[in-house]
Amino acid sequence: MSFSTLGLSSELLSALEAQKYQTPYPIQQIAIPDILQGHDILGIAPTGSGKTAAYVLPILNQLQSLKKTKNRHVQTLVLVPSRELAIQVNEVVQSFASSLTERIKSLAVFGGVSINPQMIALQHVSILVATPGRLLDLVNSNAVSLSGVDTLVLDEADKMLNLGFKEEMERIFKLLPNKRQNLLFSATFSEDVDTVHQQVLNEPKIIRIKALKKNIDQIIQTAYRVSEERKGPLLRYIIKSKELTQVLVFTSSTHKADRVVEKLRQNGIEAGAIHSKKSQSVRTKTLERFKDGALRVVVATDLLGRGIDIDLLPYIINYELPRSPKDYVHRIGRTGRAEASGEAISLITEEESAHFRIIQKKMGKWVTMVESDELNLQGY
Question: Rounded to whole angstroms, how far apart are CA atoms 31 and 29?
Answer without folding.
Answer: 6
